[in-house]
Amino acid sequence: MSDTKQQRKSEDVTRSRSVERLVAGQATSDGAGVKLTRVLTQPLQRRLDPFLMLDAFGSNDPGDYIAGFPDHPHRGFETVTYMIAGRMRHRDSAGHEGLLENGGVQWMTAGSGVVHSELPEQEEGVMEGFQLWLNLPGRDKMCAPWYRDFAAGDLPTFTTGAGAEVTVIAGESHGVAGAVTRDATAPLYLDIHLPAGARFAQSLPAGHNAFVYVYRGDASVGGTRVAVQRMAILANDAAADGVVIEAGEAPARVLLIAGQPLGEPIAQYGPFVMNTQAEIHQALADYRDGRFAPIAG
Asked: What are the strands of the beta sheet with 88-92, ordered from one edge?
């Protein structure tokens, strides 16, 4: 599955999308008290359809993460967990289990419903990563749950002529297909490591919503400086055919995420995301009545 790093020509982008707004994110906690920053919050779900949430977590203090995320349910969407550093064990009621380690990705389709846990397998050191929630179209919300772990070495990568090192988690970039594709939402998920002053260009379909999150250094996105730990929502400019990202005077690391909006109603109650309130009530009843099977010991 891995694509050997090599020199590749930049995609042609004649006009970059501009930055519509910058978002700082909100400090919060989830699970059993894991401290994190919620970058993509619920009020942005319609604007960044099909994406529902992006959490960034990172700490070398075990007190911030050691309790992890004990058993909890999901229905109606997908979770994409990208581990920059650390070890996290996943178990779910559909019988899946895996260990997420440095540079790895866990892709889980909750579909009709799973109960799962995500618990650290470390007592010290840095734990850092991201969890993205990707919506499912109404026709797929009750599909069978699906899960896959990708070790760092299984993720396709390439290096541009400018020295940008890119991991393609989903979608396609510069002729390299990512680890996962989805027809309905067509997600693009890139982790881009830019040397100081380096430039990276990525074509984007005009109708897709897109954003950039800078997690090391700072970068210029479509000509606007974006500081570390800031998300830049990209304008939906019909005349633009992509985005150009440039590192500042120091190396930068950024996530570029884009996808095809579903344009469907979004009804969310905590870990359940459906199209109607009636479907939310049904999800609550199904979970309460044990139709989400508990994790086997």
From this structure: 69-74, 114-120, 88-92, 97-100
Cβ 204 vs Cβ 17: under 8 Å: yes
Nearest of 174, 3, 168 to residue 80 by alpha carbon: 168
Task: Determine the 3-state secondary structure of 130 from DSSP.
Answer: strand
Q: How does pLDDT run across 241-252, given as a tens digit for each residue?
A: 999 999 999 999
Three-state DSSP at 110 gives coil
Radius of gyration of the chain (CA): 19
**Could you tell me if 91 and 174 are in contact, meaning their C-beta atoms sit under 8 angstroms apart?**
no
Instruction: Please give the C-alpha separations between residue 3 and each of 55, 79, 168, 170, in angstroms, as whole numbers.
Output: 28, 24, 10, 14
Q: Which two tokens stand for residue 146?
A: 């699906």
Q: What is the mean pLDDT of residues 183-199?
A: 98
Sign of the C-alpha dihedral, residues 285, 119, 79, 55?
positive
Classify each residue of 107-142 as buried b or exposed e, where b means 16 or more C-beta atoms within 10 Å of its C-beta. bbbbbbbbbbbbbbeeeeeebbbbbbbbbbbbebbb
